[in-house]
């Protein structure tokens, strides 16, 4: 049975066999999908481009449109992970010090919000999801793992350094 798989904020990273949306759908608004109609939702480094209020609304919309056995995968930059980074190349690339790197991920790149694992987890729980944190390169969901393997190269060191990831199901 074909699953309804949607990626929001895809940029140039379009997953084969998925419905991929970038600017075509504004995640700060009501999603144009019926209740319980999607099986998998994926978004990578997208949530931080809307305010925390809009992000909460997006999570509520994800809960509305995801099917009862569906999964929502959210990946965002983590100010905690960046602050604990010891990769000198990354630190230099992001401004020369950890404090500047954290400041930049909060204030630059079009970001309107910033996340920690605890904040994102509790937002998901408040909406009604049962979240599980994962390494950004691992998913227990086959279709998501295949998309990660095909689209996120091992040379993307910033992805590993910055990213926190939760997969969530309806409670």
Question: Can you offer a commentary on this structure?
Answer:
The chain has 171 residues and is of the alpha/beta class. The two termini are 24 Å apart. Strands 2-1-3-4-6-5 form a six-stranded mixed β-sheet. Strand 3, helix 1 and strand 4 form a beta-alpha-beta unit. It is built from seven helices and six strands, in the order E-E-E-H-E-H-H-H-H-E-H-H-E.
Question: Can you give keywords for this protein?
Answer:
36% helix; globular
Task: Give a short synopsis of this structure.
With 171 residues, this protein is of the alpha/beta class. The protein has helices spanning 52-65, 79-83, 88-93, 98-107, 117-127, 142-151, 157-162, and strands at 5-8, 19-21, 38-44, 66-77, 129-134, 163-170. The mean pLDDT is 93.
Write the layout of secondary structure elements.
Elements: E1 5-8, E2 19-21, E3 38-44, H1 52-65, E4 66-77, H2 79-83, H3 88-93, H4 98-107, H5 117-127, E5 129-134, H6 142-151, H7 157-162, E6 163-170
Parallel strand pairs: 1-2, 1-3, 3-4
Antiparallel strand pairs: 4-6, 5-6
